[in-house]
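Need residues for this backbone.
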């Protein structure tokens, strides 16, 4: 469990730099340069992700169950997860969805974490999903107080929204049918 906790601290910690120390983050990015800063940031995030995956795999071997959700809760989770992939794509493809939601990646993260908390009651699951949910809520709150950074963007078009919705639904279908089992090791649909 300690590996999982360390991974969460590293991964969510580096993703929290702009929340807790935006001025320091800006100074480091200016001192190192944009691409070296992004490279360092990415390496730290990757190290945290690797630790999370290793810690998760270890904790799954001897789970400590806090609660068991009723079986009908899976249907609610499947419904809550439907917009997640659309929102993830909207974070990278400009369009009305991205404009209206303002921070589609954070909304997707909150929906993903909340829905998984509803059906996963082991300690390691609660740590992972509650950690991501708390981080996403804190980041969203901090965005209201922070000065937005200028980021290059492609023009927003209605076609992009169609691509985002269709692509998101295709990813959702893939994850329901195969992806979750292949990547996470837990099938969502009976074989």
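Answer:
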């Amino acid at each position: 469990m300690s590996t999982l906790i360390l991974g969460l601290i590293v991964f969510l910690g580096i993703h929290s730099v702009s929340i807790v120390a935006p001025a320091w983050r800006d100074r480091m990015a200016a001192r190192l340069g944009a691409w070296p800063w992004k490279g360092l940031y990415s390496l730290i995030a990757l190290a945290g992700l690797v630790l999370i995956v290793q810690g998760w795999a270890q904790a799954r071997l001897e789970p400590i169950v806090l609660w068991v959700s009723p079986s009908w809760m899976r249907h609610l989770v499947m419904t809550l997860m439907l917009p997640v992939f659309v929102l993830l794509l909207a974070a990278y493809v400009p369009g009305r969805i991205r404009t209206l939601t303002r921070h589609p990646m954070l909304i997707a993260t909150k929906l993903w974490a909340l829905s998984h908390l509803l059906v996963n009651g082991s300690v390691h699951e609660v740590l992972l999903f509650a950690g991501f949910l708390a981080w996403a809520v804190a980041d969203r709150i901090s965005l209201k107080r922070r000065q937005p950074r200028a980021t290059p963007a492609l023009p927003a078009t209605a076609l992009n929204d169609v691509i985002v919705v269709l692509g998101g639904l295709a990813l959702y279908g893939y994850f329901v049918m195969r992806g979750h089992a292949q990547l996470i090791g837990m099938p969502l649909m009976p074989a």
